[in-house]
Amino acid sequence: MSASKRPSTSSLRRFITSRPYVTVAELRRRFGLDDPDAMAHVQRNGTSAWIGLPEREALKLQELWHRDELGLELSVEVHAPVVVGIYPMRIARYVMDHFNGNGHANGHATNGPNGSSGARQPAPPAATPPPAPPQSADRVPGPPTLGAAPPE
Q1: Do residues 31 and 22 make contact, with C-beta atoms less than 8 angstroms apart?
Q2: pTM recorded for the entire structure
Q3: 21: buried, middle or exposed (CB in 10 Å: 19+, 13-18, 0-12)?
C-alpha cells in the first residue's frame, strides 16, 4: 500500500476482527507500513504503551481501543509497556464467557431480540450462595493485556 493509500479505521477494524489475534508485525505486512523506525505512543485511562506503527495508524487503533472494540497484548520480554498483538474484544468476551462455563461470566450477557439471554438457565436452589464475581471482566488468562477498563 502506498503512502497516499493508507488504511482507514474501518479497514483496520475489519482485518483485526476477522481473526482471533493479530500481531503488530502482521498489521505492518498487511497494510504495507514499511517504516522500520515507526513507533507511536497509545494511551487510555492512565494506561499507556508503545506500538511499532506509524502515528496515524496507532491513533486509529487507540480510537478503537477507547471504544472497547479491541484489546492490546503487551510483551512480557521487555520491561516497558510494548504492544505485540491486538485482539477483538468480542472474541475475548466470547472466550471468557465459555471459559467460565456460564455464558455471561464477565457481565456481558448475550441478549436475544426480547432482551432475554437467549439461553434458559435453571434458578439456583435457595440454599446455594450466589457465585463470586469474576476477578477481571475483560481479561483473558495469559500474558498482560490492555483490554477494557476494569469495573469501578
Answers
A1: no
A2: 0.59
A3: middle
